[in-house]
What we know:
- 29% of the residues lie in helices and 19% in strands.
- It is an alpha/beta fold and 103 residues long.
- It has a domain at 8-70: 3-Layer(aba) Sandwich (Udp-n-acetylmuramoylalanyl-d-glutamate--2,6- Diaminopimelate Ligase, Chain: A, domain 1), CATH 3.40.1390.
Amino acid sequence: xxxxxxxxxxxxxxxxxxxxxxxxxGSGTSVLSGVQADLFITGEMSHHDLxxxxxxxxxxxxxxxxxxxxxxxxxxxxxxxSLFEGCxxxxxSSHDRDPVEIV
Length: 103
């Protein structure tokens, strides 16, 4: 997640250590639903899903949807190259950016 300069934090006020972390790129709501963890790290969650997480005792770090997916693209490119034994060219955009701008 290189290049992320700010995150949103919904943190429980507690002295307990974080012992378990669940991570989901993009929108973590459906994937993390029902997962028991001290901390969720994901791109985005709805307001009510954030409230449910805190009610369940889970803190949340939101890193923006696109930012959490972007770091995997180079890995995916290499996996596709290997899968197709170099018969295809996978090009990553050098102009890719988050479509949402924070002002």
